[in-house]
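Much of our argument rests on the idea that a fold can be written as discrete symbols. In the encoding step, the backbone of a single protein was reduced to a row of integers, each denoting a local shape. This step matters because it turns folding into a mapping between discrete strings. For completeness, the protein is quoted in full, as a sequence line and a line of structure tokens:
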Amino acid sequence: MSVDIHEHTVATIEDAIRTERDSPRALRRVVEILKREIQHYTWVGIYVLEGDELVLGPFLGKPSPHTRIPIGSGICGAAARERETIIVDDVNADSRYLACSLETKSEIVVPIMSGARVLGEIDIDSDQPAAFGAEDRKLLESVAALLAPVIGSSA
């Protein structure tokens, strides 16, 4: 992913969040932008923390059986518990992976934080092995920072 795509995507997301007054629609637009702009993002979703569970919000890709994930369960739950981005190059080699699609080869999960508090997370799968690198991490951590006030205002 080039720096130009990163900057363009962040600017597009900033504009979408600024112009969209409705929080659920803003989250949906962010998912749409990420899926459209980054070719290797096969499944893009946002989970929102409710109590001690991550609840699936807007997503694009195949339906997921994992609409509620307890903190600590799976890669999503681990990222929320550890409050850190997790990149998995080969989901089949990671015992934490909660299988959704046989085509999924790699995953990145980025917590959406307000201070030390987890509000939710961005979860992205790819059908390519080792699809996510430093640029994806930088992009998605920037997007997560933009989403924190959106989720915080609807909580």
Q: What stands out?
A: Residues 3-154 form a domain with the Beta-Lactamase fold (CATH 3.30.450.40). The longest strand covers residues 117-126. The chain has one domain: 3-154.
